[in-house]
Amino acid sequence: MRSRLAMFAIALAGALTIGACCTTSTIRCKQFVARSATAGIPAFPLKALQSPHAKRVMLYLDKHGRFQKYAVYVSKEGIPAWALAAADKELGTGEDLAYEVEQYGTGEKIYEITRMVDGKKVELSIDATTRKRLYTEKAGLAIDALPAPVKAAVAKIEGFSAKAYSLKEYASGEKLHEVEGKQGGKALELYLDDEGRIVRKQQPMTAVLKVGS
What angle do CA 124, 201, 59 make, to 5 degrees? Predict the structure, then answer.
């Protein structure tokens, strides 16, 4: 039986415990697999991974281990022409870096296009159904560019060292400040509003997913 190998990152809004199998007992491992035979990832990322356009998938979990959204990185052919045209209008033309298809637990589907424009990394997020812009994102901003309330809030987080800053500007006029860094040697992403309130935290983890065929 052939299998295809796909890399994916699990973004956590809390903690995840990952168990290991077959470290000491093959018999115990077989029993574990038998009991877990009905377990599986949601249909959307699995189906998307089997698409010829798919490259990798990201699964986002809440602190209880429930799926919140799934993002599949695809080739340019996996993004409709109207979404690419919208990126030209909203971001300007430049070198495309990545294409994503996201789906939330609510069923909402989103296209995201990331590109370099005038030497800056920018991203467009657009609703696949309404075709309306959700937000644009500017990446690679200086930490010193953080608004004072946000910078103060980040400085108060014990053991956290900020490394990167991105700004999401929503169609509604709201802004979300994403600060990436490390705490206790582990990667951590913080999302804060203009007042410095932490909206959510995410801990990225890298794993390997093997999809059988």
Answer: 60
